[in-house]
Automatic annotation (TrEMBL):
Gene3D superfamilies in UniProt: 3.10.450.10
Superkingdom of origin organism: Eukaryota
The entry's keywords: Protease inhibitor, Signal, Thiol protease inhibitor
Domain Cystatin: 24-115
Family membership noted in the UniProt record: Belongs to the cystatin family. Phytocystatin subfamily.
Entry protein name: Cysteine proteinase inhibitor
Length: 127
């Protein structure tokens, strides 16, 4: 049996497995999105989160701005957004989780939490 001809295929297989393992290792890791404030798509997601929260909880928060964003690969993309919103002239910061599954045309608010000034959460509302 001539194993010399099989060596290139073994190398290709090993490289392919290494790339697959690297991709799998990155799945599920939260990554900060740089310049999130300048992204129209992320601004729309933040505004969507506030509107959904208002609709489900009966509040009248007004979207002010997107402060920061992270994303995580799940069965789609989970976005972790820090949002500034106001009510009755008083601004607060909120953490929102929005799941996007583009191939299923799904956008879903998973949670919305008011943050304390120190950065930890104060009130959590799973929507």
């Amino acid at each position: 049996m001539d194993f010399g001809a099989a060596r290139p295929w073994c190398l290709v297989l090993l490289i392919g497995m290494a790339l697959f393992m690297q991709t799998m290792a990155q799945t599920g890791v939260k990554e900060k999105i740089s310049n999130a404030q300048n992204s129209a798509q992320l601004q729309d997601l933040a505004s969507f989160a506030v509107k959904q929260y208002n609709s489900k909880q009966g509040f009248q928060l007004q979207f002010v701005r997107l402060v920061s964003a992270e994303q995580q690969v799940v069965s789609g993309l989970m976005y972790y957004l820090v949002i500034e919103a106001s009510s009755k002239g008083k601004s607060n910061y909120y953490e929102a989780k929005v799941l996007v599954q583009a191939w299923r045309n799904i956008k879903s608010l998973e949670s919305f939490k008011q943050m304390k000034k120190s950065g930890s959460t104060d009130v959590e509302t799973n929507v």
